[in-house]
Amino acid sequence: MYAFEYHRPTSVKEAGSLAGQAEDTKFLAGGHTLLPTMKLRLAGPANLIDLGQIAELRGIERTGDTITIGAMMKHAEVANSADVKEAIPALAEMAELIGDPHVRNRGTIGGSVANNDPSADYPAACLALNATIVTNQRKIAADDFFQGIFTTALEEGEIITQISFPIPSRAAYAKFRNPASRYALVGVFVAKHADVVRVTVTGAGSNGVFRVPEMEQALSGNFAAEALDGIAVGEDGMNSDIHADAAYRAHLVGVMARRAVQAAAARG
Amino acid sequence: MTASGIGAPVRRKEDQRFVTGQGRYVDDFNRPGQAYAYFLRSPHAHAAIRSIDTSPAMIMPGVVAVFTGDDLAADKIGGLICGWMIHSKDGSPMKAGPHPALAQGKVRYVGDHVAVVIAETLAQAKDAAEAILVDYDVLPAVVDTAQATKAPVQVHDVSPDNTVFNWHLGNKEETQAAFARAKHVTKIDLINNRLVPNPIEPRAAVGEYDFGTDNYTLYTTSQNPHVARLVLSAFIGVAPEHKLRVIAPDVGGGFGSKIFIYAEETVCVWAAKKVRRPVKWTSDRSEAFLSDAHGRDHVTHAEMATDENGRILGLRVHTTANLGAYLSTFSSSVPTYLYAPLLSGQYDIPAIYCEVDGVYTNTAPVDAYRGAGRPEATFVVERLVEKAARELGKDPAEFRRANYITQFPHTTPVIMTYDTGDYAASLDKALEVADYRNFQQRKQESARNGKLRGIGFSSYIEACGIAPSQAVGSLGAGVGLWESAEVRVNPTGSVEVLTGSHSHGQGHETTFAQLVSDRLGISIDQVSIVHGDTDKVQFGMGTYGSRSGAVGMSAIAKAIDKVIAKGKKVAAHVLEASEGDIEFKDGRFGVAGTDRSLAFGEVALQAYIAHKFSGQDLEPGLKEGAFYDPTNFTFPAGVHICEVEIDPDTGVTKIERWTAVDDFGVIINPMIVEGQVHGGIAQGVGQALLEGTVYDQSGQLITASFNDYCMPRAIDLPSFQVGMTVTPCPSNPLGIKGCGEAGAIAAPPAVINAITDALGHEDIAMPATPQAVWRAAQKARTLLAAE
Ligand SMILES: Cc1cc2nc3c(=O)[nH]c(=O)nc-3n(C[C@H](O)[C@H](O)[C@H](O)COP(=O)(O)OP(=O)(O)OC[C@H]3O[C@@H](n4cnc5c(N)ncnc54)[C@H](O)[C@@H]3O)c2cc1C
C-alpha cells in the first residue's frame, strides 16, 4: 500500500465537495475490492474518501411498487431485509450468494454497482430488474449505466446514493460460482415484469453483464423453461480463463437460465 | 484407560490459547530496534542479470541497507542445500546446481530472490525495492514437467538437459519376465498435479545479533528448528552452531513447507549482524504462493501385469518428477525413496521396476507436501488397480482383496519390509460402513434424477517414521532420523518434557502429556511439553512424515522408563527395601507384597532433597534423557471409499459419502486422530477436485492467489465416516504407526476412481474441475449414444 490522506465526511454533500477539491481521490465503501488492489500497489489514490459515516447512504425502503436501497447497505443487510425478501426474494437470494460471510458483511451494493466487475452479481440483478441508479447528480437507468467491464456511466467524483428496484411479478437468480473466488462464473437473472421479461447474464461475457434478447422474447410468450429449448448463446464474446473456457460458459448460460426460470416459475 | 491416559479423547490443551488469540507466532515477536526486510523478487521465470544498481534505493527514506548476492558471497555465506544425495542408475551423483540465497548472475523462477531491502518500515522497504534497477536479459523458460528435458532451455549449467538424476528401484529383468508371462496388461498415464501448500500462517523470520555475547537468535516458522540451525551453521555458515539459537514458537501449519531452510531466514540472521539491528520478514500471501516449496508435480506412465486368475504379476512405472528451479532441502528424496518403495501398495506383487527422472524447470522448487511421495505412489497404484479390475470385469473391492498381502512380515520388491497389518479387516469394515451392498440402488435413484453416481476405492499404505537412521543413511540421507526426549521431574512431582518433535497443529502438548500421564500416573495438568527452542531442547529432528508419535513419543517413553528406574532406586532407599522389590504401579512406588508405598511426587521430592541416601550411593535429582532410533518404518494402511454424484449438466461433483477405515496402530487420542484424518482427506479432496497450480508458458504463476487457486471449503466436503482397525506396530514400544498424512494419501485416487466410475470409465485428470467433468460427461454421453 502507498500512503494516502484519509477523509471521513458525514454527508453526501461534503463527500462530493471533497472529491471536487482534492486530487486523485477514491471513494471507499466496503473496501473489499479497493483495499486489496491498494495493498497490492495496483491502486494508489492520494486521497481516500470513506463513505462509511454518511447516514443518508443507508437504509432500505419500500414505497408502492419499488424497493430503494442505500448505496452503503451491506450484502448481508440486503439478504436479511424483510422488505426485500418479501418484495423481491430473488434479490435477497442473490445477495446471500455473494462471496462468504466476511464479504457479505463488508461489501456494499453501491461499491459493487460502481465497480461493475464482470463477474459480480449485482449488475445482473440491476439490469434484469430494470433498476435506477441514483447519484448525487442524477438518475441513471441500469440499461445506460453498465458500459463494459469495470466501466460505468459514473463521472469522476459522482457518488451513488441509492438504487431503486421496481418490484417484478416474479424473478430468480441462478448462479454458478467460480469454485475459487465465489464470484459468478456464470450468473443468470430472470425477471418477469408486467410488460416484459428480462434475462441478464453476468460472469460469462467478456464485455461484462449483458441481456439475452432471444430468451427474453421466448419467455415473454411463455414463461417456462421449455420456452428456452433450442435457444443457445454462442461462444463469441464469452470469457475464457483457466476456470472455464468460452464453450463451457456458453453452455452454462443455457443451464442457469433454465434453472432461473424454473425457480421463478415455482415461486407462483 | 484413565481419563487422560493413552486412548482418551482428551481436549487439546493448546486450543485455549489458540482460539482465544493468545498463540504467539513468529510475527508476534517484535524486537527492540527491529527493521524490516523486503525481498525484491524476479518478475521473470528465467533471466540473466546483467547488472543490479541499488544506489537509487539506498537513498530512499528509511532505508537501512540494500544487499544482493554479491554481499552474501563477500561474507562467504554459502548457498542453500539439498540434504539427500541421490545417485543415478549409472552411479553418478545428482546434478545439484548452485542455490544462492540471493541471486548471483541469474534468476530461475518468478519469485526468485534478487535483493533485499532493509528499512525502518515495511512500506519504506517496498518503496525502495521498486527503485532498484535490475538489467535483465530475459531467457526462454521451461515450465512443463514432460517437456523439461526436451526444451531448448538450460536451467543450470551442471545439467545440460535439465535432468537432475535418472534413478531407479526394483528389478528390471524380473519385471520384464512378469510382463512376458502376463495374460493382461493395464496401462495408465497420470499427472499428479502441482500443489501450493498454503498453511494458514505464512512463513516469517526475525533475526537478531547480540554484539555483547556474539550470539545470534532466529525466530522462524520451522517444523524442525534444530535441523534449521545445523544447516544454517554447518552448511550455509551464517553463525557457529553453538552461537545460534533457533526458536520456532507457535507455528500455524506447515504440511511440509516449513521443513525446509529458505533464503529469507538465512538472510534475516546474516543481515541482523550487518545492520546491527534485529531484522524481520513476514511473507505475505502472494510471496507464499510464489516462493514456498510446492508439492507433487509428477508425470507418470505405469503398467500392471495380471495373470488369468486376476493375480497381479508385476508393475512397471516411469515417472518424471518436476523439482523446480532449485533443489530444496529434501526435494530429491521425495520422488525417489519416499515414492517408489510404496509402489507395492497393499498388494503381493512379485516384480516391480520403477524409473524416476528428476528434472529442473523454471518454477518454484518442489519438495515434501503432506504425504510427500506416498500420495503420488498411492495414486499410481490405486488408479491402476481400479482400472485393471474394470478391464478384467472384476469387482474393485474383491480384485483388491484377492491381491492383498496376508502374511507378515512381507518384503516387497521395492526394499520395504511391512511389519504387520490386516488389510482385509479394514476392507470389510469399510464396505460395511459405506453400505456398498446397496450402492447399485443408490446409483439407480441418482439416475432417475438425471445424476451420475459413482464409487471409488483407495486401499492405501504409507511408510511413516522414516527410520532407522542406518537405513536412511544408506539411501543417501544427510541426517539421522531418530528423535530425542528429556523428561525433567520437578521436586513437586510435576513434569516437563523436552522433545525434539515440533507441534504446528498436531496437538503434541496434549498427546505427549497423555503418554506421561499414562506412564507416571499423574494428571496431564502436571505435565508441560517444551519444544521449538534450540536453547531448551538439546537436539531433535522435528516433525514431518507422521513421525512424532512413532519416533518422538517413543523417545519420551524411553526416557520415562529411565525416570521410573531411577525412581525405584530412590524409593528403595526411602522405604528401606531392596531395589528389586520396588514396583511402580498406578503412580506409586511400592514394596512388593506389602502395603508400603510412595506416590510419584513423594519420590520426586526425595530425589531432590536427598536426605535418605548418600550422594555417593545415588545421584540426587530426577531427570533422564533418551535418543530413540526405531528398527523400521511404520506402515499405516487403510481403505477409503468415496461416493460421488455428478450433475452432468454442469459437471459439478458432489461427494455424497466418505468412508475411512484406517489402521494407525495404537491410538493415543482418538479425537485428535480423527481430526488429522479429516484434515488429510480435505487436502486430498482439494488435490483431486479443486487445487491446480498453473504456470503459463512464460513461467508466470497464474494461480497466484486464492482468487484462482481453489482451497477446499467445508461446503466441498461431506460428513466423514471414520472407523479404525488396530494392529499394533511392532517396531516401536508404543505400537504407534502415525496418522498425519493418511487422508491426503488415500483421498485423491478414491475421488478420481469414483468420478471415473460415475462417468462410465471415462478418464479424467486432477483437479477434476466442473469444466473437466462436464467435458468428460459429454464425451461419455456421446460414446454411450454411439453404442
Ligand atoms: C473474497 C471476495 C469474494 C467476493 N465474491 C463476490 C461475489 O461472489 N459476487 C459479487 O458480486 N461480488 C463479490 N465480491 C465483491 C464484494 O462483494 C463487493 O461487492 C465489492 O468488493 C465492491 O464493494 P465494496 O463495498 O467492497 O466497494 P469498495 O471496494 O470500497 O469500492 C469499489 C469501487 O467502487 C467505488 N465506490 C464504492 N462506493 C461507491 C459509491 N457509493 N459511489 C461511487 N463509487 C463508489 C470505489 O471508489 C471503488 O472504486 C467479493 C469480494 C471478495 C473480496
Give a verbal description of the structure:
The complex is a heterodimer of chains A (268) and B (787). Chain A has 268 residues and is an alpha+beta fold. Chain A has three domains: 5-50, Uridine Diphospho-n-acetylenolpyruvylglucosamine Reductase, domain 2 (2-Layer Sandwich), CATH 3.30.43; 55-166, Uridine Diphospho-n-acetylenolpyruvylglucosamine Reductase, domain 3 (2-Layer Sandwich), CATH 3.30.465.10; 170-265, CO dehydrogenase flavoprotein, C-terminal domain (Enolase-like, domain 1, 2-Layer Sandwich). Chain A is 33% helix and 22% strand. Chain A is built from eleven helices and twelve strands. Chain A has helices spanning 12-21, 34-39, 75-80, 82-87, 89-96, 101-104, 109-115, 122-128, 142-145, 213-221, 246-266; strands spanning 5-7, 25-28, 47-50, 60-63, 66-70, 132-135, 139-141, 160-166, 170-177, 184-192, 197-202, 210-211. In chain A, strands 4-5-8-6-7 form a five-stranded antiparallel beta sheet. In chain A, strands 9-10-11-12 form a four-stranded antiparallel beta sheet, sandwiched between helices. The longest helix of chain A is centred in the C-terminal third of the chain and has 21 residues, at 246-266. Chain B is of the alpha+beta class and 787 residues long. Chain B has three domains: 31-139 and 202-252 and 258-291, Aldehyde oxidase/xanthine dehydrogenase, a/b hammerhead (Aldehyde Oxidoreductase, domain 3), CATH 3.90.1170; 298-467 and 632-786, Aldehyde Oxidoreductase, domain 4 (2-Layer Sandwich), CATH 3.30.365.10; 482-628, Aldehyde oxidase/xanthine dehydrogenase, molybdopterin binding domain (Aldehyde Oxidoreductase, domain 4), CATH 3.30.365. In chain B, 29% of the residues lie in helices and 22% in strands. Chain B has 19 helices and 28 strands. Chain B has a seven-stranded mixed beta sheet, sandwiched between helices. In chain B, strand 23 (588-591) and strand 24 form a beta hairpin. In chain B, helix 14 (508-520) packs parallel to helix 15 (548-575). The mean pLDDT of chain B is 96. The interface between A and B is medium-sized, with 17 and 23 residues. The complex binds flavin-adenine dinucleotide. Flavin-adenine dinucleotide (FAD) binds next to strand 2 and helix 7 of chain A. Flavin-adenine dinucleotide (FAD) binds at residues 26-34, 51, 71, 75, 98-99, 103, 107-108, 110-112, 114-115, 120-122, 154, 159-160, 181-183 of chain A.
